[in-house]
Amino acid sequence: MSDTSTTTRTWVANGPAGTLGWIRRMPDGYTFGLVGDDGQRAVYPSLDVAKSALHASLVPGSDWPEFREH
Length: 70
Fold this sequence. Notes:
Strand content: 35-45%
Number of domains: 1
Helix content: 10-25%
Mean pLDDT: 91
Order of helices and strands: EEEHE
Number of strands: 4
Shape: globular
Distance between the termini: 29 Å
Protein name: Methyltransferase
């Protein structure tokens, strides 16, 4: 018997005003979205790279968000 279930791991990015976005584990890396996004973002090779990409997508001068795994 094999286990074919998958577990999706998600990290929520929070700033001073609340939730900014999320990072989700994909089979081939990590992707992120911002609150209000309509499209799909690229897939990044590591969680750290996805965190940096999310931060770079915020308004210039934004503080580094707090990431919490859910």
